[in-house]
Design a protein that fits this description.
The complex is a heterodimer of chains A (365) and B (259).
Chain A lengths: L19 H11 L15 H8 L11 H14 L3 H13 L4 H9 L8 H15 L6 H9 L4 H22 L5 H9 L1 H14 L20 H6 L5 H15 L4 H15 L2 H13 L4 H10 L7 H12 L5 H11 L5 H26 L5
Chain B lengths: L1 H46 L5 H10 L6 E12 L2 H6 L3 H21 L3 E6 L2 E6 L8 H25 L7 E16 L4 E6 L1 H16 L3 E4 H4 L6 E5 L14 E7 L4
Parallel strand pairs in B: 4-6
Antiparallel strand pairs in B: 1-3, 1-4, 2-3, 4-5, 6-8, 7-8
Helix pairs in contact in B: 4-5
Classes of the chains: A mainly alpha (365), B alpha+beta (259).
Amino acid sequence: MPALDAVEWETCLLEPVHNPAAERALRKALGVVPPGFTYFLDSAWGPAAAIAFDLGHLPLRHLSSKVAEMVALVVSQDNACRYCFNMTRGVLGILGFSDARIRRLEEDLRTAELDAAELAALQFARRVSRAAPPVGLSDVAPLRALGWSNAAIAELAAVAAINVFYNRTATLPALPYQAADELFRRPTVRLFGPLVRRWMRPRRRRAPTPLAAEARVGPFAPFVTALEGLPVAPRLHTVIRACLHGSTLGPRATAMVFAVVARGIGCAVSEREATQLLLADGMPEHDIEPALAHLAAPSLGPLERAVAALARDSVWPQPASLQRHARTIRPLFTPQQFVDLIGVAALANALCRLSIAVDLAPPSA
Amino acid sequence: MVWLELALALLLLGSAGLAAWSLQERRRLRHRVDSAAAELQRLQAAFGHFAPGAVVDRIAARGRPSEADRREVTVLFADLVGFTALGEALTPEALVAILNDYFGRMSRVIEQHRGHVAKFIGDGLMALFGALEPNPWQANDAVHAALAMQRALTEYNSELAARRGPHLRAGIGIHRGPAVAGVLGSYTLMEFTVIGGTVNLASRVERLTRVHGQAVLITDAVREQLDPRFALIAMPPAVARGVADPVATWAVKGFDGDA
């Protein structure tokens, strides 16, 4: 596990944005505008993703909120995301975890007073996040042995993947992790923390969540339908649709990000879906394999090549190296495009990891 | 009565002293545990550069893991040509300083191209691409790294020439294929490495750089996965020690595009 205070972290690549309409939408859905989201308010789909993926408001059918929060901690630590790690530590503190317990979770899961199911869950979440190599049946086996259903495993994978999404959105632009520390040191936050504890915990939902017919068709629909019954499924559909319709990168560059990340992780389903998007955009079929094998092809312009190279580096990132890479290519993009690139790369990393895990344990099986 | 009060006061004082001492000891112990944990995290983070995270976790939990797996890797061997003779002309201090400087520069270049140095062998090194993560672009990464290593060596030679140092020449051989990856060694010295025919052939290809008089040689297995924008020249098949058939190689002359 990386010692996070030793992880190199660049200065932030983005500026906070003031967008009253987006702020209103966030306040209405979440009660507040979380500080990290202020950097993404210019994106047409960023606020929709933030609302749909907010772990404090995502109803859970099988997972306890305690496990969900611990997953957030170990995944952000594993991804060396200093921003998300500090945020999650603060949230765990408000949720009633003692400093000593949080420290034990950071240091060694085996000494963190976890029961067998919690330990297995955190180890599985870590493997989903790492994807090096992607999770396999041997990773699912300990959970099954402890009585976890496929639906519970899929929900766990979804929570891990959503944390990967947040980790990438914070790591790529080097969001200032110091801000998270300061936020949870504020006297008001410390004073009212216990009061908001109950409000912060995600609700349990016992009944299956229905999936609309429109979510069963279109790009990446197999991901959504594979999670049918879980509250995360319709939210995933909302984010995918918002991203594909709202990304200012253009359809080809957006699809390239998904395709490159899928190739890197080895997710055949995601690569197939992304390839369909590239073909639909008119990319010649004979160009697609060279584009994915060498991240260059005659039909890719400079912007698309830059996007592909950054997408590749986002799969197993060394934070500072990824941040320097992002800084180098930033002048090629408008501010909105650059924010969208960060979001698309984050979503691709989350979806590809989730797809592989859900293939092993389809909830509907 | 006075004696009783005095005894009680002494008892209270003693208890307070004991409590204060105990608190201080607990703080000291906590500090030592924290320091040890932080040191362990630093060590794990450092080891994480040389082995997959899952391997590091298993070593931390259970000591040396016994499991190993077969994976597709690209192996790069680099060796300094004629360095043994050169070493005899230098003082031991100068020799070590030059070698360490060279290794430092080469390691940085390899890391920049997503590889990692698995071991230093005398004046040579072995680097792996795709050993820590399943990297589908490993062949391109390794060959880009080889070209960047040659550029870094040219730069270093300029610096050495300015202070009347020796001129270094490196031969680089690259091969790709399946290899067994795992933690090898004893409890006192262990390393995450790969073994198998792929590693042996990569080493032999590096030796062929001297036969063909080329700086960077790759095998057919690497060429098949390579970006066509690399400029390659076919070398005649040559006999390599320990390999039954003559080995066909390609000299890498450059790259026509953005790396």
